Structure to design on (694 residues):
């Protein structure tokens, strides 16, 4: 296999010892599969072991969830994912809200082989599931966004390495999710993670604001600030301390009360903080100190893009927009300002109205990898809203990229708009779900498919989960949809007013659930009401606050 | 029961452990066993007279004893033997050793080869631990 001559832009470049480590992890898993097949391991014993390596048993088949650390892929990795999809799955993959990719139709016997193929491009499935520290997520515009304070990916990689096969925290009460952002705009839902970190620079090095105990699922909770300013050198020690308190005191008698949010709620933030501070006081701090040398070593394995653009790049983009209104509409919704004047971030919608949110075919993946090679230093990011980002596109070449995306059927101009629907796989795939989520997401996408209508509605998020485990994050959608079983029928509850960002809020339940088509109509009436009643520039959440849930409820249940 | 040596301690304690709650009253012998819901701080006054602490795993998924072992080593400075007992898998050998366990009590029919193979698997680890630095 050939290695790229230079370091990867955007993610940590593996060294030989990382590759040797992956091989050993695969050998270990292969042995576990063998022991399961020979009966040496019971299914009860095998289950946590396979989950820790990303293998789920779904409704119809095994599912393999592959880690994409902090959501950054390079083009050779994306080509490889396309190959895996074609060879071992049904020719597509599904990008998740945790910035990973899932293959839904995998045979267990193929898993070790797939893992070896992935390891050829430094990819793995370590800790994408199970009651351990999961793959760390980050800001999709990291290292590129104009509003960024510091690039969070170096520390995301440090946390990834620290959490990998951690000897003490691999058999936790429940799963543990960490997200890290370096922007004042919280694009990682930091307050909805077990630990959310907001990084910022200071005269004396990076500082981290640490939120604890947030989460969605059955008991949605907004995370609370544990520490305002954790110093870089204390980052690992602080994570250790939080995890120790959780591992020792988190509930293990009830699966649904085992997340850290329940522990923090039960003993209260002050008592929790006191326990963490006691750990920190007793800890051998030198052993856990994150040294500047270590940070520099990790940083050195990230390559920076060489951002050179012609002086007239912005002008050329303006000309392209003027000449092509469809392109202009796409630019308006699907781009984000870049730190460099001649560059821009492009968001590729995986929500083509009528298609399954987050799904990409093998051919599309190959095409995207080629486009990334040409237009974004070979770098592709996965967003927690199930879209993709090219981080560093020259403005004068954006039109060319758009044409390439159109040819792949991936140029929907709807990012952040109503048809940019976040959804879990639902009952079509998942054995936890009460209802299908994909058909409803598809119907809603089609209902609001018209680009002009979407542009008129403006920023509005719909999130859809097939059950209360909330993988589609329905609590934080401006409009949330939740599949519920009503005497054997699949029905849908509507929630309004959720927000995942700086103004974190959990949506309120509107009332009794709807049948599938009724739910589509009810959402349509809610949106119509918003369009008719909103004041100039008023967001959906702002109007909801002004008019109250009751007004929306009356509209939603009007003809039912 | 057969004992498996995780840490290369060589001489493992042969005495039968007494449950801590009982031992506290009599303080006879130097070997105790501790359930997962007792904080190891409670052992502090007695540590110098103990040579074996057995930490229990009611089920292998319950990882509290990993934190107990690390606390004993790192916070309490306990130098005697720490043993794992109960429902354990060879897949946990490295976790146990790196958290400060010296030995594991296996059933007579346990496959020791799996445990040995697991101990030698990785050439390095990504994180420091107080008892086994990188």
């Amino acid at each position: 296999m050939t290695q790229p001559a230079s370091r990867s832009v955007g993610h940590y470049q593996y060294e030989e010892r990382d590759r040797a480590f992956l091989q050993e992890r695969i050998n270990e898993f292969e042995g576990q599969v063998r022991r399961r097949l020979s009966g040496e391991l019971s299914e009860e014993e095998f289950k946590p072991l396979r989950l820790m390596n990303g293998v789920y048993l779904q409704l119809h088949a095994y599912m393999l969830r592959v880690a994409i650390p902090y959501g950054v892929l390079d083009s050779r990795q994306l080509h490889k994912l396309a190959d895996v999809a074609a060879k071992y799955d049904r020719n597509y993959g599904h990008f998740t809200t945790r910035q990973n990719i899932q293959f839904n139709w995998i045979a267990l016997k193929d898993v070790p082989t797939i893992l070896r193929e992935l390891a050829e491009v430094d990819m793995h499935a370590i800790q994408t599931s199970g009651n351990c520290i999961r793959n760390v997520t980050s800001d999709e515009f990291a290292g590129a966004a104009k509003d960024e304070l510091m690039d969070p990916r170096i520390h995301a990689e440090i946390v990834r390495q620290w959490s990998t096969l951690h000897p003490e925290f691999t058999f936790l009460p429940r799963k543990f999710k960490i997200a890290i952002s370096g922007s004042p705009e919280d694009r990682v839902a930091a307050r909805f993670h077990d630990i959310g970190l907001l990084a910022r620079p200071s005269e004396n090095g990076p500082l981290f604001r640490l939120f604890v105990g947030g989460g969605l699922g059955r008991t949605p909770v907004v995370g609370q600030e544990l520490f305002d300013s954790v110093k870089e050198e204390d980052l690992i020690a602080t994570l250790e301390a939080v995890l120790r308190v959780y591992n020792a005191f988190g509930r293990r008698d009830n699966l649904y009360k085992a997340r850290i949010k329940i522990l923090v709620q039960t003993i209260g933030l002050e008592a929790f903080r006191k326990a963490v501070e006691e750990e920190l006081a007793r800890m051998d701090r030198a052993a856990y100190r994150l040294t500047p040398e270590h940070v520099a070593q990790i940083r050195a394995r990230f390559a920076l893009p060489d951002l050179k653009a012609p002086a007239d790049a912005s002008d050329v983009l303006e000309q392209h927009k003027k000449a092509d209104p469809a392109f202009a509409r796409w630019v308006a919704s699907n781009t984000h300002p870049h730190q460099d004047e001649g560059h821009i971030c492009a968001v590729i919608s995986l929500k083509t109205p009528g298609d399954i949110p987050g799904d990409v075919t093998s051919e599309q993946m190959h095409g995207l990898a080629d486009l990334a090679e040409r237009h974004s230093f070979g770098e592709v990011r996965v967003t927690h809203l199930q879209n993709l980002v090219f981080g560093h596109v020259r403005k004068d070449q954006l039109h060319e990229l758009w044409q390439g995306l159109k040819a792949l059927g991936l140029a929907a101009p709807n990012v952040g708009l109503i048809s940019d629907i976040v959804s879990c796989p639902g009952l079509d795939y998942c054995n936890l779900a009460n209802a299908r989520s994909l058909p409803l997401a598809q119907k809603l996408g089609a209902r609001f498919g018209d680009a002009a209508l979407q542009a008129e509605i403006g920023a509005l998020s719909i999130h859809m989960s097939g059950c209360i485990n909330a993988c589609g994050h329905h609590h934080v959608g401006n409009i949330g949809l939740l599949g519920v079983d009503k005497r054997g029928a699949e029905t849908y509850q509507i929630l309004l007013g959720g927000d995942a960002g700086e103004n974190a809020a959990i949506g309120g339940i509107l009332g009794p659930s709807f049948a599938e088509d009724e739910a589509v109509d009810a959402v349509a009436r809610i949106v119509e009401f918003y369009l008719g009643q909103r004041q100039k520039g008023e967001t959906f959440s702002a109007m909801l606050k002004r008019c109250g849930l009751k007004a929306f409820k009356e509209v939603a249940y009007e003809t039912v | 029961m057969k004992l498996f040596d995780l840490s290369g301690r060589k001489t493992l304690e042969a005495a039968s452990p007494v449950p801590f709650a009982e031992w506290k009253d009599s303080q006879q012998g130097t070997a105790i066993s501790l359930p997962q819901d007792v904080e190891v701080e409670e052992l502090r006054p007695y540590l110098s007279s103990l040579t074996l602490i057995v930490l229990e795993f009611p089920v292998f998924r319950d990882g509290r004893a990993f934190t107990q072992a690390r606390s004993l080593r790192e916070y309490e400075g306990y130098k005697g033997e720490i043993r794992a007992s109960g429902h354990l898998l060879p897949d946990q050998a490295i976790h146990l050793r790196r958290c400060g366990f010296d030995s594991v009590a296996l059933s007579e029919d346990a496959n020791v080869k799996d445990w040995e193979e697991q101990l030698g698997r990785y050439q390095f680890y990504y994180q420091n631990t107080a008892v086994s630095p990188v």
In short: The first strand of chain B starts at residue 2 and ends at 5. Residues 61 and 88 of chain B are 9 Å apart (CA to CA). The two ends of chain B are 32 Å apart (CA to CA).
